[in-house]
Specification:
single chain; about 350 residues; mainly beta; AttH-like fold; 13-stranded antiparallel β-sheet; 9-stranded antiparallel β-sheet; 22 strands; about 50% strand
Length: about 350
């Protein structure tokens, strides 16, 4: 149809990214935890989050999303932000109806307008190639191990997370004489759920990090009923060295500034599970996004009754201490990562 190639209206695009409702999912036949599931449920949703911390000072965050919500089934969106070292923020947003985006047969390569997430090869790739925006960004990364599956709410909400991997690529912006090289760390996760995320989760805090051949992923979810679910995973080379589920994560009293007291992000995070202990210090908030900012009225007013979301990204120095049984603790592994905190509504005052 003629209209199928037009971008989805901005209001629908933001509604999709908010994930106000979602439906049951079925595993993709022969696929992996990262492959698209493409449920036929009326309100099904899944998304892939990409976060890259680059040595040049660039930062990149993007979400690729497929949903049956909104205008038709299997609508797709790609929304992201590129932060330049000088503080300039470049937003990226695309939405396409079912006939106007592509997915590979194995469910691991999505192309949504000018944005591509390709997990179908040993060397994976994320790219944005837009003449309209004047940006050509490409990052290649090679996952060292398969994803770990995390089920904070079995049967209702699931996450598959890759070990953060070394990433290399290039960036060209309109006006540049030539592309600049990029190098750093990239983290990726895939999330799907049976019910609306806003009905299940109040806050989702995640920490990604890499130092040499050691990778780190930590997640702490505060559910809508007040319960908490957490997971700590440490990889070394191509294998999981330590994993612990429901190990308590402690957030310090000091908060990132200037911040927002309704959406508090702690500067210090601590967790111990199995033979691993992690300490992290968040140093610099580089993006705070109110997902309702770009939603036009009256949709913004109506959505505000159900959700008041914010998502925050911050650089994080981390330290991992590992011990093996009765052996003394090994020297701490230190590195730079990123903390990401998603709020679906403000936390209640203590």
């Amino acid at each position: 149809m003629r209209n199928s190639r037009r971008p989805v209206a901005a209001s629908w695009l933001l509604l999709l990214c908010l994930g106000v409702r979602a439906g049951a999912q079925e595993p993709a036949p022969g696929g992996t935890a990262l492959a698209a599931r493409l449920s036929t449920a009326a309100a099904a949703m899944e998304y892939w989050d990409v976060t890259a911390v680059l040595q040049s000072g660039h930062r990149f965050a993007a979400r690729f999303l497929v949903t049956n919500e909104g205008p038709g089934t299997r609508t797709a969106a790609a929304v992201g932000h590129l932060l330049l070292p000088d503080g300039t923020l470049i937003p990226i947003a695309y939405g396409r109806t079912r006939e106007a985006w592509t997915l590979s047969a194995d469910g691991r390569r999505l192309k949504i307008a000018s944005a591509v997430l390709d997990l179908s090869h040993p060397v994976a790739r994320v790219e944005v190639d837009s003449d309209r925006l004047g940006i050509k960004l490409g990052l290649d990364f090679e996952p060292a191990a398969g994803p770990v599956s995390i089920n904070p709410l079995p049967g209702a909400y699931a996450i598959a997370a890759l070990a953060p991997a070394a990433a290399r690529g290039t960036l060209w912006l309109r006006g540049m004489p030539a592309p600049v090289p990029l190098e750093g760390t990239l983290a990726l996760s895939h999330t799907w759920m049976e019910r609306s995320e806003v009905d299940l989760v109040q806050r989702r805090a995640e920490l990604f990090g890499r130092s040499g051949d050691v990778g780190l992923y930590m997640a702490d979810l505060t559910l809508t009923d007040g319960r908490r679910r957490s997971t700590l995973v440490v990889w070394r080379s191509a294998s999981v060295q330590q994993r612990s589920d429901d190990s308590p994560v402690t957030f310090g009293d000091a908060l990132l500034t200037p911040g927002d007291p309704r959406y508090p992000v702690a500067q210090h995070w601590d967790a111990c599970g199995g033979q691993a202990c992690v300490r992290a210090g968040l140093q610099r908030e580089w993006l705070r996004w109110d997902l309702l900012d770009s939603v036009p009225q009256p949709f913004r007013f109506l959505l505000s009754f159900k959700t008041q979301p914010q998502r925050i990204w911050a650089d994080a120095d981390f330290e991992i201490t590992l011990a093996g049984g009765k052996a003394p603790a090994t020297p701490a592994v230190q590195g730079l990562g990123v903390g990401v905190v998603t709020f679906w509504r403000p936390l209640p005052a203590p």
